[in-house]
Amino acid sequence: MSISIKRPEEIKKIASASRAVAKTLNYLTNQIKSGISTKELNNLGEEYIKTLRGRAAFKGLYGFPDGICISVNEVIIHGIPSNYKLKEGDIVGLDIGVEIDGWYGDAAKTVGVGKISKDDTDLINCSYEALMYAIDIIREGMHFKELSYEIERYIISKGFVPLRGYCGHGIGKRPHEEPEILNYLEGTNPKQGPKIKEGMVFCIEPMICRKNGKPKVLSDNWAVVSEDGLRGSHWEHTIAIVNKKAKILSIDDTEE
Fold first, then answer.
1. Model pTM above 0.70
2. Fold of 8-250
3. HSE-up of 50 (CA within 13 Å, CB side)?
4. How many CA atoms lie within 13 A of 107 on its CB side?
5. C-alpha–C-alpha distance, residues 77 and 207, integer Å
6. What whole-number distance in Å separates Cα of residue 206 and Cα of residue 131?
7. pLDDT band at 256 (very low <50, low <70, confident <90, very high)
């Protein structure tokens, strides 16, 4: 496994793309309402990214047909935008990648449409809080497997389970680089494998299921659901290791 170390000037370029992602996520969150279709949301997002001098990085990536992954209710990740119109009580995952000047940023969030149930609120909160917990505990010298173990432990402590078979990842000149960062421990020993080092840049993205973490890919060959057919949630940030700890890059300037 070859995990690249980015120079400070390279981290700044990834941060620029990541800020565009954060701005687009905030913009689309404000557009979410009953009656809007996920295709309309995608089109708004693609056009907005252009105003930020960026390119919707997911469009055409591995054959994905649109610029933004929009996952509704039982779809946890990789939802293809469609003519489906959102309605009160739905939950919506937005996963966005942006490329600017050859560098990539990536982030995701799950939000509710209008008033949602307490169960769905807890589900969304778990993915967000697991992400922020992971970012808070990351330190230089920590094994990536230790991070995976801690994410899984946190998710289970909240009464949910991680989606299996999918993971966070490195990022930089390509949208997906080494390492793969699972949301659960594979094997039995977290104190093995590559360690987190200064200058590494990667995406952490807890994907949460209610009961069964085994994935099922739908007939469109993209949308991923849990085998239990229940709703899931997904949050993601691009982070860099700066001064021996994690710094969030996918944040809107106005939020700092």
1. yes
2. Creatine Amidinohydrolase (3.90.230)
3. 8
4. 26
5. 8
6. 6
7. very low
